[in-house]
Amino acid sequence: MSGSQSGGLMSSAGLVRYFDAEDRNAIRINPKTIVAFGVLFGVLVQVLNLVSL
Predict the structure, then answer these.
(1) d(CA 41, CA 36)
(2) Which among 7, 25, 36, 50 is least buried, having the fewest CB atoms inside 10 angstroms?
């Protein structure tokens, strides 16, 4: 029983190591900036829909 349950942690160890790695060359963007751009884009789409009527 314990042999079949121990494989889960072993198989996910590579993913944890992959997502835990930090790349110094990666672009760093604040999550609030992404949300703000999404809201602004939504407002822009709504304005363009109103203008096109």
Answers:
(1) 8
(2) 25
